[in-house]
Amino acid sequence: MDDPAQLAALFKILSVETRLRIVRLLQSHPLCVNGLARRLNITPAAVSQHLRVLRHAGLVQSERRGYFMHYRINAAALARCGEQLQSLLSPPPLRRELLERYIPNQERK
């Protein structure tokens, strides 16, 4: 996901507070829509809409348990998001020739 448009879309998805709260809750254990709705104090319909967006982005996976769908974090996808964020925020490695051009030998010691 080195494409800036894809990265921007991911950040847009995660810029919604409720979605971040859902991700946090699902990191501890899988939950159904009603369980999430109770913990978030929002309607099940609102939770379903947020889960649809998170599922479409690949951040959440669903699993049927009896009559209910339980949702859990896609740990691999979340790890990739973290790597992308780390890569974006890390300074690029300094090339030796740039260092030598801008910093005299005496100052580099």
Mean pLDDT: 86
Strand content: 5-15%
Poorly predicted sequence stretches spanning 5 or more consecutive residues: none
Q: The CATH topology, please?
A: Arc Repressor Mutant, subunit A
Percent range of helical residues: 55-70%
Give the structural class.
Answer: alpha+beta
Estimate the global geometry from the Cα principal axes: elongated
The radius of gyration is 20 Å
The CATH architecture assignment turns out to be Orthogonal Bundle
Please give the largest β-sheet: 3 strands, antiparallel
Q: For the record, give the distance between the C-alpha atoms at the N and C termini, rounded to a whole number.
A: 39 Å
Q: Superfamily at the CATH H level? A: Winged helix-like DNA-binding domain superfamily/Winged helix DNA-binding domain
Q: For this structure, what is the CATH class? A: Mainly Alpha
**What's the helix-strand series?**
HHEHHEEHHH
Total DSSP E strands: 3
Lateral arrangement of strands in the main beta sheet: 1-3-2
* Overall structural domain count: 1
Helix count, DSSP H or I runs of 4 or more residues: 7
Describe this structure in words.
By secondary structure, this protein is α+β, with helices and mostly antiparallel strands. It has a single domain (4-108), classed as Arc Repressor Mutant, subunit A. Helix content is 63%, strand content 13%. It has helices at residues 4-13, 17-28, 33-40, 44-56, 75-89, 96-102, 105-108, and strands at 31-32, 60-65, 68-73. A hairpin with a 2-residue loop joins strand 2 (60-65) and strand 3 (68-73). Helix 3 packs across helix 4. The two termini are 39 Å apart. The mean pLDDT is 86.
